[in-house]
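Deliverable D2.4 — example input (structure tokens):
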């Protein structure tokens, strides 16, 4: 047994010997901690982070308690206890030591993870990482409590096999009950880690829903539509959907305008003046070329596509409207017709007779079978034609 060389007059009194052992060992351990603290401060004084200072401040108390419990364990070995009392005393001290060391581990790991998580969260505008950080810290605390509980039970000689089996069954039941929630949580984590989109991005889902990402939560994502409606989507739905992000890889967006003209018009002439009109729009991206394409000879029209770029999604719809208006006005100015579907309806008179199509009064849209509004409209157009 240690400290056998303590002077005899002390050795004659076991209680006094225990006190001396406790004091000497506690002082030695405190001296070691003091020297270690000074060395640690010197080594970390050159670092810009204050993480080491926080760890040192938070770990001081559990280290002191550890020194006290270790000194007390060795000191009590100098005393004689009854069989039942000795087991209770030592098991209690070992349990307290396990709890103290577990708390020390938790402090160091929690501070380190918290600092790393804080730096990562500063790079994102979402609050899911803050919530996730709290969730990780809470999970770490629960895991540590379970581990310490198992160690303490083992110290007291309690059979932990049934306890672990029950814990596994309970965990499985909880996991099954929380499967939808956990699915959304892990989907939210995947969205953040993958960088699919972030707060402020304009996205479009495969179901056609389009809007601005307003908030990415732990369970759901909020999307503000262009009608100023707040749409709440479960993260598991977003993670499994095809999502178009209009702000990645950059903010530029292509605008496409389609129109058709009547047959008999020179396509090259149409392309020329449409290009002039679109290039005159002030807020299109001048660094990108404007393309006017003769895309199709359809059944009733010659179809064209105009493609140009704007530097942000907010200008897409105004640019589209401006281009449509300019193209329409230019076609009207050039007296180029725009084909549209027409239907002529022939109606029987009161005697059940159908009108004669060869009759001039039924030429085009003329005739008594049309409303007064239609007749006035036709007469007005005839007057314009002279």
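Example output (designed residues):
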């Amino acid at each position: 047994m240690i400290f056998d060389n303590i002077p005899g007059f002390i050795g004659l009194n076991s209680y006094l010997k225990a006190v001396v052992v406790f004091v000497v060992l506690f002082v030695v351990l405190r001296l070691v901690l003091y020297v270690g603290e000074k060395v640690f401060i010197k080594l970390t004084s050159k670092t810009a982070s204050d993480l080491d200072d926080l760890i040192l401040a938070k770990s001081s108390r559990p280290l002191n308690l550890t020194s006290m419990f270790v000194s007390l364990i060795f000191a009590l070995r100098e005393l004689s206890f009854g069989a039942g009392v000795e087991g209770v005393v030592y098991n209690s001290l070992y349990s307290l030591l396990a709890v103290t060391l577990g708390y020390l581990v938790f402090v160091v790991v929690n501070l380190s993870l918290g600092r790393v998580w804080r730096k990562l969260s500063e790079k994102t505008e979402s609050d899911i990482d803050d919530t996730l950080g709290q969730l990780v810290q809470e999970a770490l605390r629960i895991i540590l409590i379970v581990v310490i509980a198992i160690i303490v039970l083992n110290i007291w000689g309690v059979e932990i096999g049934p306890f672990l089996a029950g814990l596994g069954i309970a965990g499985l039941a909880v996991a099954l009950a929380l499967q939808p929630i956990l699915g959304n949580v892990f989907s939210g984590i995947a969205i953040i880690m993958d960088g699919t989109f972030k707060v402020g991005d304009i996205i479009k889902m495969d179901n056609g829903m389009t809007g601005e990402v307003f908030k990415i939560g732990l369970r759901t994502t909020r999307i503000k539509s262009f009608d100023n409606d707040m749409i709440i989507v479960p993260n598991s739905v977003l993670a499994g959907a095809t999502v178009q992000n209009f702000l990645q890889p950059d903010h530029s967006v292509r605008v496409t305008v389609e129109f058709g003209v009547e047959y008999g018009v020179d396509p090259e002439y149409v392309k020329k003046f449409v290009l002039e009109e679109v290039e005159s729009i002030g807020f299109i991206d001048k660094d990108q070329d404007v393309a006017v394409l003769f895309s199709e000879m359809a059944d009733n029209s010659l179809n064209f596509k105009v493609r140009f770029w704007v530097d942000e999604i907010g200008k897409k719809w105004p640019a589209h409207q401006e281009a449509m208006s300019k193209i329409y006005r230019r076609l009207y100015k050039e007296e180029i017709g725009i084909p549209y579907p027409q239907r002529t309806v022939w109606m029987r008179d009161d005697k059940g007779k159908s009108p004669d199509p060869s009759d001039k009064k039924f030429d085009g849209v003329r005739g008594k079978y049309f409303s007064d509004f239609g007749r006035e409209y036709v007469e007005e157009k005839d007057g314009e034609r002279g």
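DSSP finds eleven helices and eight strands in the chain.
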